[in-house]
Amino acid sequence: MAHIDDTDTQKANLDYIRSAMNEPLLKKDHELELARRWKDDQDEDALHELVQSYTRLVVSMASKFKNYGLPMGDLIQEGNIGMMQAANRFDPSLDIRFSTYATWWIRASIQDYILRNWSIVRTGTTSAQKSLFFNLRRLRAKIEQSQEEEGLNEKGRAQIAKELKVKVKDVEAMEGRLSGTDPSLNTPIGEDGATDWQSMLADDGPDPEEVVIGTKDASTRSKWLESALTSLNDREQKIIRDRHLGYDTVTLEELGKQLGVSKERVRQIETRAMDKLKISLESKINNIQDVLTDA
What we know:
Blueprint: H1 7-21, H2 28-41, H3 44-52, H4 55-63, H5 72-89, H6 98-117, H7 127-147, H8 154-164, H9 168-179, E1 188-189, E2 195-196, H10 208-229, H11 234-245, H12 252-259, H13 263-284, H14 289-292
Antiparallel strand pairs: 1-2
Helix pairs in contact: 2-3, 4-5, 4-6, 5-6, 7-8, 7-9, 8-9, 10-13, 11-13, 12-13
């Protein structure tokens, strides 16, 4: 689904693009000097000058993907992230221009963003599928122009599959994905449009009666457990609470340091305490699974 920025956002994007296009180009020697200062000395001023001068490259790359219906500002931002990754990995000793090296990182970052956000259904999970996603439209247009008719036939799909090294069924599936959109759950249905798709979805959650019963059972099990814990000594209670009843599980090693014993000794105490708990609970409950199963 295409995204249209509001007026203020569009103005901000245009201002940024104009600023990027007005950044001075770097000479090769100065560019490599900046890269060395960042790599060797972590000079942030050098990094800023290096990446700032190539924001035009990011804008240029982002504009190539503007037809995927995602905000231009977001595409540029993702491209900037890719350029920062390139700056962190760039080796000035290779004696190549930073723009040559950064292009791949910028494109990859933008493409990953598109794949994550173009559809609510995950698209392009393998390198071959990613290549298919980003090249299908171009190849389809090329084939349609050569055969002077719209749409792909079996021969055209086979040609694309061969060129991109994917299966024909993958081409067919991606063709269907690219020609459709993700429907909104708020889309009206019916002749009068009085309801929407969202209201027709089944609720898999518990009904009110189950919630009340579950809450009561959970409260009862908590009382059983608290009563059973009184059968343990202070050290055993601490180990059980820290290892099994807290939000964050404390490791055996951490407990050993707190209690002044070895990790293995904590494990032994924990095992003994669990056995004591089980015996205590079994004396109060007919079915031990009642306390071990979530409501």
